[in-house]
Amino acid sequence: MLYPLTFTPIFKDKIWGGHKIKSILGKDFSSLPNCGETWEVSGVPGNISVVKEGALVGETLQAVLEKYKEQLVGKHVYEKYGNEFPLLVKFIDANDDLSIQVHPNDELAKKRHNSFGKTEMWYIMQADPGAKLNAGFNREVTKDEYVKAVSDNTITDILNIEEAHPGDVFFLPAGRVHYIGKGLLLAEIQQTSDITYRIYDFDRKDDKGQTRELHTEQAVDAIDYHYYGDYKTHYDKKLNESVNAVTSDYFVTNVLHFDQEVMHDYTHLDSFVILVCVEGALTAQTVGGYSFDLKMGECALIPASVSSVTLIPEGTMTVLESYVP
């Protein structure tokens, strides 16, 4: 029988990675020089999550999906995505600025890479004083203006750059230029895709003196050049209420900020649910008496066949609850 699944994190060292994954989230990546990302729930080929506990321990997410199909992901999700798990969840520690980048939409990604596009969201978990990020442009930009700004290294002049604070949410549809700035620790929920077009990498070199590959030509046709005014996602973080932060074609994410027990009934959803603990700690219980603990920096995949989950916080917790609409 299917039960809530937790997975062994996949650690990624990055040229911009740091040590908050260990110092704040308590995850040990001692075999790596740093850790820029942990992939927590992943169906990306070559980086597929492995079940950490219970009867399915040691099984890959892919194998569980192929065996249980709509029991795991829901009928409409399985009809749409088949044996491809549709979401990827990461924690990201930016000890330095990431590259300025963009992701293609489904249509372009399908044509160029036979892949899904990449729409994503960020939830800021911790921010050093003054830490900033980029989402979108700071004015209307033409394709020609953009190409010129890239060629003469003035790209940062046309970017919308703003300070980020814990609890901030940014939704980044495919096509939106963005980068995560130094000093931010965040949770990222995205489509299952690993396609990134790197536009500018601040001229940095790796330990062998090499610069990283740029994808300036490919990025030009992937970018949304419109100016949207306000790029932060506004939501009311209310105590003991489930608050919707993001609703998109690919995922819905609610913010659960609770200091009391709450039961969530999922019988109306035809989807799995991913719970991402971004603050505090909790114990979760499902029908049939299965229980598991989550603390800040941990995730659980609730199969579509599990009808409800009761969350019991230790003090105050904040959890991101995501599913496919």
TrEMBL record:
Residues 244-323 form the Mannose-6-phosphate isomerase cupin domain. Its cofactor is Zn(2+). Residues 8-115 form the Phosphomannose isomerase type I catalytic domain. One of its GO terms (molecular function) is mannose-6-phosphate isomerase activity. It comes from the Bacteria. The keyword Isomerase applies. InterPro entries: Carb_Metab_Reg_Kinase/Isom (IPR051804), Man6P_isomerase_Firm_short (IPR014628), MPI_cupin_dom (IPR049071), PMI_typeI_cat (IPR046457), RmlC-like_jellyroll (IPR014710), RmlC_Cupin_sf (IPR011051). It holds the Pfam family MPI_cupin_dom. Keywords: Isomerase, Metal-binding, Zinc. Binds 1 zinc ion per subunit. GO terms for biological process: carbohydrate metabolic process. The active site is at 198. Zn(2+) binds at residues 103, 120, 178. This is Phosphohexomutase.
